[in-house]
Amino acid sequence: MSSNKRAGQMSIGMNILGLGGHAASWRAAEAPWSALQDVAYFQNIARISERGCLDAIFLADGPALQADVSRSPAGRLEPMVLLTAVALATTRIGVISTASTTYNSPYNLARRIASIDFISKGRAAWNAVTNAGDAAAQNFGLGEAPLHVDRYERAAEFVDVVQKLWDSWEDDAIIGDPVNGRFAHPEKVHAIDHVGKHFSVKGPLNVPRSPQGRPVVFQAGGSEGGKALGSRHADAIFCTQTTLEDGIAFYNEMKSRAAAWGRNPEHFKIMPGLSTTIGSTDEEAERRADTLDEYAGPEGALAQVAGRIGIPVKELDLDGPLPWHRLGDLIPPEKGSHGFFEAQIKLAKRENLTVRQLSRRIRTGHRLTIGGPGKIADTLEEWFLAGAADGFNLMPDVFPSGAEAFVDHVVPLLRKRGVFRHEYTGTTLRDHLGLPRPASRYASAAAASA
Fold it and tell me: I want to staple 124 with a disulfide (CB 3.0 to 4.6 A). Which of 215, 291, 357, 444 is the partner?
């Protein structure tokens, strides 16, 4: 690979997607279906990931039953509750929980995440998402999901309120003097007095400023609304680019957007997703992928593509092209994921892929690489050195073997190439990601006023 080493080292997160990133992972039977309700299963994967000095583990989530219960295990534990137990079973690795801005309130969510930051001693992060499906809306008394533009307008205000609440206690607000009976400086605990279109929140938060100052904020969304939200408020972006060309373009665009908000682009991380199937050789990995695809059958391939582009399965031909006449001008659906839609459409159009071929190239909505440890290390290094990524969000095909293969065989190669850490050098998730600890905006305002 290239010897043109960029400064720094990549970040890597492990996305624990159920029993694995492949839809048929449960049929590999490495773990029983009941592992999805067993905290020990998640703790084990977190420990494997920590053994490799990965930055964090990540849990996706959504407030509705998302799987076809006739074909695969369904039902997830609430991620913030689960990650509390995972944090207590580990010492260094970060814990990232997805939570919706569409069906939560800022105050309660800010309190829960700040609490996890204390419990983990500074390793907590929130992946801020909106929810597009009608099924989730109907669980909260709505007939259908809000339109995309409305979801992201609410989300931007939601994240702003959460970050204000995390800042509402200054770092030195607490005195803790039992002798003289003084606990805190009341002038350093601030009401935020937020009044906006969607929220009215007085504050302050009823949790002091947490170990990281603010827990890390991730954002996952490739639409215009998602890019605007992420570049302004997030510390890092999970994204869906499937080609190096698109990855570089997205990276440069997002760094420029962050700079336009007056932010330091170096303190804003871009982490595309990567699905993996790893074998001891490329041939072994292909056989492993073939076995899983056989478990899923043609119905699984059709369902995977149909769900991402918003076209009914019955309108897809497995060995034909996408129904371009039905996709109009390639405009993403108002109530679906724009990022996943665009990732699939761009790749299929650029390479003239059939539905079957597309299902083999993208899994879980993200780029897929099948191969031995060297091939996996090559693609990570290539994207990192080319300026398409600051790090990656990994989605192995089957747990725990997919995580073990990456940690035990890919990580050593990345270390030899000088692009990944040999050991943790800090204790917080901000340390791992190379992000500074932010000052409270209220402390800055008070200093300026003084």
Answer: 215
Domains observed in the chain: 11-283+365-449 (3.20.20.30)
Most confident option among 195-204, 328-337, 348-357: 195-204
Pick the closest to residue 167 from 122, 197, 207 (CA basis). Answer: 207
Of 257, 250, 255, 280, the closest CA to residue 367 belongs to 250
384: enclosing H helix or E strand: helix 373-385
- Give the predicted TM-score (pTM) of the model: 0.90
Structural contact between residues 201 and 187, judged by C-beta atoms closer than 8 angstroms: no
- The overall longest dimension of the chain from CA atoms, in Å, is 78
Looking at residue 76, its pLDDT comes to: 87
Cα 349 to its chain centre, rounded Å, is 26
Burial class (CB in 10 A: 0-12, 13-18, 19+), 423: exposed
- Which residues does residue 125 pair with via DSSP β-bridges, in sequence order? 96, 216
In 101-241 the beta strands, taken as DSSP E runs, fall at 124-129, 174-177, 182-184, 194-195, 200-201, 216-220, 236-239
What is the reported pLDDT for 6? Answer: 67
Q: Which helix (DSSP H) or strand (DSSP E) does residue 56 occupy?
A: strand 56-59
